[in-house]
Amino acid sequence: MLKRILNISLAYVGVVIGAGLSSGQDLMQYFVSFGKWGIIGTIVLGIISVVFGKIIITLGSYYRSNDHFEVLSQIAGPITNKILDIALIISCFVVGFVMIAGAGSNLNQQFGLPFWAGGLICAALVILVSFLDFDKITSVLGIFTPLVFVMIIIIAFYTFIGKSFDFEELEAISATIPSPMPNVWVSLLNYFALTAMTGVSMAFVLGGSIMRIGVAEKSGLLGGFVVSIIITVATCILYANVKLVSTVDIPMLAIAEQIHPVFSLVYALTIFGLIFNTAFSLFYALAKRFSSDKPKRFYPILIGAVVIGYGLSFMGFKSLVSVMYPLLGYIGFLMLFILAIAWVKERSNIKGEKHLRRKMIQLITKKYDDNQEYTKGDREEFHQLGEDSIVDTQSIKSDIKDLVKEKFNDNTR
User: Fold this and answer.
1) How many CB atoms lie within 10 A of CB 62?
2) What CATH number has the domain bearing residue 109?
């Protein structure tokens, strides 16, 4: 269970932090531009991130969603549902090609690789990895999260240990950084709404892969907590180094280059991995949305979207962040409001479903455990609980049986 929690939470972090956070570009525009108040803003953002991390992953698990539409159709009215569905489709595609642009900028800044080549490598990887099964995909999404966490801590030690700072100078330089937001409070809300818009589609899919709602809750909390730490520490690093990084496309990479060439190389590859994480998650979720009724359409849709996204990525990473991110963030306000209302309304039902599934697992475990007797009464109760579940009866019964059988097979190996 612990392994499952870690896998999902790390995958969630990989989906959310993406190119902008790990590169530092969106943090520069959203937080560093407001100086010390921007750092305070990231702390508030961290609290919001933990709360909504739990809400999003748990709702995905509760409804056992394969795409965002399955959740939205349950928690929003027809008109609102349609608006959010269209907004999420647009955000998946737009931020997807922004990530491809980020890949081009990243490899260009570190290796001098032509912009088109870096984006092409990222686009090709998105298509290739989509052919793996979902458990392997989840593992891939979580690979780079521990790396970036450790590397940001290393950069933090390099930045702050034994050094002093002229805060008046830092404030003055920070004030010269253009921000798309009027103040830090609108900025932090817009930024989190943006992360919700870009991450919620794949987060629902991640949550939908979890049968145990308790596991989903813990995964969301842990994922949101890790995101909050990375955002706050990275913003502090960028603020302290603002004189160095105020004009570059990939600010964190510029700082890494000051530490050691090898460290810079590893960090560049890690950023690329996180860019890929987000790009893949967005295009994957987009293709899932349009192929839910016809699975055979999944790969043609995904490949077509990636190819078009690659072409649009030539608009440039930094300019795309400054224009597209705020717009999507404002649309995301509606998403956060709907999610919060759904959580309040469904809390008791989620709690009931959580106990229902736990009981179903306990009952069917008897069937596969030689030391327990699986009675006719147990079978009837198992079926009745399946009838009472929010999920389709045959689906929930089959999935729980598979979960328990897998557990017993693992124990006998």
Assistant:
1) 24
2) 1.10.4160.10
Q: Which amino acid would we find at residue 250?
A: I
**Per-residue model confidence (pLDDT) at position 48:** 92
Distance of CA 145 to the CA centre of its chain: 11
Whether 340 and 388 share a structural domain: no
Q: In degrees rounded to 5, what are phi and psi of residue 369? A: -100, 115
Dihedral angle at the C-alpha atoms of 99, 229, 44, 321, nearest 10 degrees?
-10
Q: State how far the Cα of 4 lies from the Cα of 330, in Å rounded to an integer.
A: 33
pLDDT (tens digit, 9 = 90+) per residue, 132-153? 876 777 677 667 778 878 888 9
Between CA 231 and CA 4 the distance in angstroms is: 24
Between CA 363 and CA 275 the distance in angstroms is 43
* Whole-number Å distance between alpha carbons of 170 and 242: 7
Q: For residue 225, what pLDDT band results from cuts at 50, 70 and 90? A: very high
Q: Are residues 155 and 198 in the same domain?
A: yes
17 half-sphere exposure, CB direction, 13 A CA radius: 37
Please provide the average confidence, as pLDDT, over all residues in the chain. Answer: 85
In whole angstroms, give the CA distance from residue 285 to residue 67: 7
Interval 71-97 mean pLDDT: 82
Give the structural domain span for 185.
Answer: 2-346
Residue 369, token pair as written in the block: 């455990």
262 token code pair? 């090898």
pLDDT at 316: 61
